[in-house]
Specification:
Layout lengths: L1 H24 L17 E2 L2 H20 L1 H13 L2 H24 L7 H15 L10 E3 L4 E3 L5 E3 L13 H12 L12
Antiparallel strand pairs: 1-2, 2-3, 3-4
Helix pairs in contact: 1-2, 1-3, 1-4, 2-5, 3-4
Bound molecules: zinc ion (ZN).
Length: about 190
């Protein structure tokens, strides 16, 4: 009985890891992060950041393609190998596909939406216009909001999701945290002023 449960768990964990490969590994290459301040420092809102946000969105959706791997291995395992492992793989990757597709139909429900990229672009436009918050606008994305570094005004009430920078808490702790949060911000955004 326990061995069945254990095998199911192994299958589930393997499927979970495989579908997170794009988001956990691709954006964290060192040469891809040289233009950004290191994690967890505030990050300057420029075109690179907005591009990064859209890349994170792409990696989020790439998980659907990566789900094909545990789905096919799971099928082989169900047919020819260990049924509990295969079932574990199917349960997790099937759930991922279902929840993401229904999320898409119900409206984007993940941290790296196009809507957010547009809001950040508006912050940039405003900082460069005559309506900027102060004479030296410098919008930085802090943990819980986008704020101007010169006048400390809150420019956008949106807490910062994971942006693919290598984690300051080290490879292992960062990995565990990302696995648990799936890149969502840990802090809620600040109250509207
Ligand atoms: Zn300002």
């Amino acid at each position: 009985m326990w061995s069945v449960f254990f095998e199911f768990l192994i299958g589930a964990v393997i499927a979970y890891m495989i579908t997170r490969i794009p988001f956990l590994t691709f954006p964290r290459i060192k040469s891809w992060n040289e233009q950004f301040s290191p994690h967890p420092e505030p990050i300057y809102i420029d075109e690179y950041l907005i591009q990064r946000l859209l890349h994170m969105r792409l990696f989020y959706w790439l998980a659907l393609f990566f789900a094909i791997i545990p789905l096919s291995f799971g099928w082989f395992s169900l047919a020819y190998g260990s049924a509990p492992i295969g079932f574990g793989m199917w349960a997790v990757s099937g759930w991922l596909v279902l929840s993401r597709v229904t999320g898409l139909l119900a409206g984007d429900d993940h941290p790296w939406t196009k809507q957010l990229a547009m809001e950040l672009q508006l912050v940039r436009n405003k900082a460069e216009s005559d309506e900027s918050c102060c004479n030296l606008p410098y919008p930085m994305w802090e943990v819980s909001a986008v704020r101007c570094r010169s006048c400390f005004k809150n420019l956008l009430n949106h807490s910062r999701p994971d942006l693919g920078r290598p984690r300051s808490d080290g490879w292992i702790m960062g990995f565990i945290r990302l696995i648990l949060t799936d890149g969502r911000p840990i802090l809620a955004s600040e109250e509207e002023e």
